Fold this protein.
Amino acid sequence: MSRRRRIYEGKAKVLFEGPEPGTLVQYFKDDATAFNNQKKGIISGKGVLNNRISEYLMTRLAEMGIPTHFVKRLNMREQLVYELEIIPVEVVVRNIAAGSFAKRFNMPDGTPIPRSIVEYYYKSDELGDPMVTEEHITAFGWATPQDLDDIMALALRVNDYMTGLFLGVGLRLVDFKLEFGRLYNDNGEMRIVLADEISPDNCRLWDVTTNERLDKDRFRQDLGDVEEAYREVARRLGVLPEGEVREMKAKRSEAKA
Ligand code: ADP
Ligand code: UDP
C-alpha cells in the first residue's frame, strides 16, 4: 500500500495524499459491506478489478465530455484523482426495479421502470443513508439548485452512455449510484465533477440472456461466485488484468507458505 499520508479510510477504499496539491490517491480494498455495514466480508481480488473497471468507465465517460476526477491508474490497486469537495449525496439512477426500490413499491425485481428515475440519498452511515429530495439538499445547503441541475443532467448522460456500453457486452444496467464533487480552478471557478468509483460494487448488472447477477448482489444475497462475477464484468469490458490477478494469487500463497 502507498506510503503517503492517509487522509481517510472508508468501507471500500482508502484515500491518501496525492503527489501534487489538489490530488489524491484512491486505494481499492477487497473489503465489502452491505446493509449499512451490518454485513461485512472480503471479496478477494475485488480491489484490483474495481480499480480497472472504474478506470475504464471513467475514461470512456471523459471521452464523452463528462468531467470526472480520474487522472490515471498508478498500479494494481491505486489511481490518481483530483481532490474534490464531495457533495454528501448519493445519486442513484434506476432503469429496472430492484433492491430497495422494488421493496418500496412492492414490485418484482426486474420490472421495467417507465422512464429512468434519479433518486437522492444523504450520505450518512449514522442515519443509514436516508432518501432525500431536492428540497432537503438545497435547504440544508449540501448543493445549490444550479449544482443539482448539473448533477441531474450528468447522471442522465452517464446512464444513457453506460446503458449502451454495457448492452454491447451483454449486460443490463439495472441501477447504479454516483457521487459528485466540486472542483475549483486557479481562477476560483467551480465545476461539478463525477467522483468516487463506478464498478459492480455500485451498479446492478444482469446478464442480458440469463439475468444472472454480476454485481454486489451476489455478496448481499449470498449467491456465491462473487469474485468470479466481478472478473466476468472486467473480462467483458476487455480490462481483465490476468497477469495482475496471477501475481496477486502467487503473492498470497507465498505469504501463506
Ligand atoms: P465510504 O466513505 O462510503 O465508506 P469508500 O470506502 O468508497 O466509501 O471511500 C471513498 C470515499 O472517498 C467516499 O467517502 C467518497 O465520497 C470519497 N471520495 C471519492 N472521490 C473523491 C475525491 N475525488 N475527492 C475527495 N473525496 C472523494
Ligand atoms: N448503492 C450503492 N451504495 C449505497 C446504496 C446503493 O452503491 O450505499 C447502489 C446499489 O449497488 C445499487 C443502487 O445503488 O446499484 C440502488 O441501490 P438500492 O437503493 O436498491 O440499495 P440496496 O438497498 O439494494 O443497497
